[in-house]
């Protein structure tokens, strides 16, 4: 049967020998969203280099422009003129965030403490994802919400005349929820505190400090982080801001090189913030040859060049407490595990069920279609590998509007015995528009696939 959406663009990936060369992945997606958000909010001009121009981040840029920020490009640099803290304008129309969970959740937080209405929509994937995790703390601050049942998009919010600062303990490991509450606190009088029992990526805290916010982080006896933000203070433009390479994008050429015999690849300028390096740690435990070269600090973040060579991997148990530092990397770790000697056990994966797709189920179905031995649990996945790749591949993978499922299974096809086809390549542009060209430049064979 023909797919209903005639625009689906299948892509096939087949084994074509070693991957070699030097590459630079695009800017970090989390930092790029925040660069547009904080640059658009802070008074003055912020010049952003290395910004990821993926669809998710551009949606955040458009949202900030709809609320009064001005942005333009000068060569490779984005120049953002912000409105000043507390001075966002009511958007005229509906704000469309497409596929972007980070974009919509952080922006809902940011505007939640404004006495105006804002309406948010997204694509079919985003409209299935839970928004209650952000709306619940916003309601405590006095925000009115009209949402589809189950707190899903499309939804409208209207902030109170004066938002109440709150102290909020984040019930799940989520940097998006932490950030949404802090951003709402920027326009509330007094101190808003987020208590984070499990540490997640810290870009919001670091960048808010860089923009001059008064923010204080302490750790209690149980190890929970308390992030206290003083609301309604001035935010001033950060001047020049450089976005380092995205470790979640680097994960794809990294795993592709590890599993494809003869490969030797350097990935330059990768963010090495410890809240983001769980995949590298895990792959090193699996026996990966990854040389972390030229560690340096750029704009307040550690970066390094990763020199990766094909390696014989072995299965490991990934500790569940590592999940927040590699949450977006489990799909591609499952592909690395398919080539490891023995079984790789991944636990603590409940959050994977509420990403762009139910990633636990999407990965398991993709592994199934390609002859990879695995067990899917409620919040776990174990994968048993075939180091020679024999008998692997030959399947067609449903990507469910999920860029990371698409890229992970294309990486599988680079080393499996039979080719792998994904149903649709388009979502890759949300986070890594250069992926297909970059991988082809390293020697991968990617070509249009058949529609059925
Ligand atoms: O704050 C961020 O920039 C992100 C946080 C994570 O989501 P959760 O907060 O839902 O874990 C991650 O999966 C997402 O890609 C980016
Ligand atoms: C989960 C992701 O993004 P988001 O939540 O921003 O859609 C991701 O990029 O893997």
From TrEMBL:
It catalyses: 3-phosphoshikimate + phosphoenolpyruvate = 5-O-(1-carboxyvinyl)-3-phosphoshikimate + phosphate. 3-phosphoshikimate binds at residues 29-30, 34, 174, 176, 328, 355. Its main location: cytoplasm. Pathway: Metabolic intermediate biosynthesis; chorismate biosynthesis; chorismate from D-erythrose 4-phosphate and phosphoenolpyruvate: step 6/7. The keyword Cytoplasm applies. It comes from the Bacteria. Pfam families: EPSP_synthase (PF00275). Phosphoenolpyruvate binds at residues 29, 101, 129, 176, 359, 404. Residues 17-437 form the Enolpyruvate transferase domain. One of its GO terms (cellular component) is cytoplasm. The active site is at 328 (proton acceptor). The keyword Ubl conjugation does not apply. Its EC number is 2.5.1.19. One of its GO terms (biological process) is amino acid biosynthetic process. Keywords: Amino-acid biosynthesis, Aromatic amino acid biosynthesis, Cytoplasm, Transferase. Transmembrane segments: none annotated. Monomer. Catalyzes the transfer of the enolpyruvyl moiety of phosphoenolpyruvate (PEP) to the 5-hydroxyl of shikimate-3-phosphate (S3P) to produce enolpyruvyl shikimate-3-phosphate and inorganic phosphate. Belongs to the EPSP synthase family. This is 3-phosphoshikimate 1-carboxyvinyltransferase. The gene is aroA.
């Amino acid at each position: 049967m023909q797919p209903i959406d005639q625009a689906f663009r299948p892509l096939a990936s087949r084994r074509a020998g070693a991957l070699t060369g030097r590459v630079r992945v695009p800017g970090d997606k989390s930092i790029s969203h925040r660069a547009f958000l904080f640059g658009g909010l802070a008074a003055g001009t912020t010049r952003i280099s290395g910004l990821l121009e993926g669809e998710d981040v551009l949606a955040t840029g458009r949202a900030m422009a709809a609320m009064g920020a001005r942005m333009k490009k000068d060569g490779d640099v984005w120049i953002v003129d912000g409105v000043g803290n507390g001075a966002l304008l009511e958007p005229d129309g509906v704000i469309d965030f497409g596929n972007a969970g980070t974009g919509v959740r952080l922006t809902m937080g940011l505007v939640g403490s404004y006495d105006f209405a804002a309406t948010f929509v997204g694509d079919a994937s985003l409209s299935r994802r839970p928004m209650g995790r952000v709306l619940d703390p916003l309601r405590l601050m006095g925000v009115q919400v009209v949402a589809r049942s189950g707190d899903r998009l499309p939804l409208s919010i209207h902030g109170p005349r004066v938002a109440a600062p709150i102290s909020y303990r984040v019930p799940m490991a989520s940097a998006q929820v932490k950030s949404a509450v802090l951003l709402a606190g920027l326009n509330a009088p007094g101190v808003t505190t987020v208590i984070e029992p499990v540490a997640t990526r810290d870009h919001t805290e670091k960048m808010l400090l860089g923009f001059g916010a008064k923010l204080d982080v302490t750790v209690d006896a149980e190890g929970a982080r308390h992030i206290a933000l003083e609301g309604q203070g001035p935010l001033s433009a950060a001047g020049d801001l450089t976005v380092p390479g995205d470790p979640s994008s680097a994960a794809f050429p990294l795993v592709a090189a590890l599993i494809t015999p003869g490969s030797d690849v350097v990935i330059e300028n990768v963010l090495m913030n410890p809240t983001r390096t769980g995949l590298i740690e895990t792959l090193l435990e699996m026996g990966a040859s990854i040389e972390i070269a030229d560690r340096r600090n750029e704009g307040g973040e550690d970066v390094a060049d990763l020199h990766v060579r094909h390696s014989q991997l072995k299965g490991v148990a990934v500790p569940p407490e590592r999940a927040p530092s590699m949450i977006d990397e489990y799909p591609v770790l499952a592909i690395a595990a398919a080539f490891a000697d023995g079984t790789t056990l991944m636990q603590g994966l409940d959050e994977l069920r509420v990403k762009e797709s139910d990633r636990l189920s999407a990965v398991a179905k993709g592994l199934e279609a390609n002859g990879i031995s695995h067990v899917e649990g409620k919040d776990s996945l174990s994968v048993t590998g075939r180091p020679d790749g024999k008998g692997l591949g030959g399947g067609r993978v449903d990507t469910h509007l999920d860029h990371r499922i698409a890229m992970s299974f294309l990486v599988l096809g680079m080393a499996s015995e039979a080719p792998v086809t994904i149903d649709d390549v388009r979502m890759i542009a949300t986070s890594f528009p250069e992926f297909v060209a970059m991988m082809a430049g390293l020697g991968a064979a990617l070509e249009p696939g058949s529609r059925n």
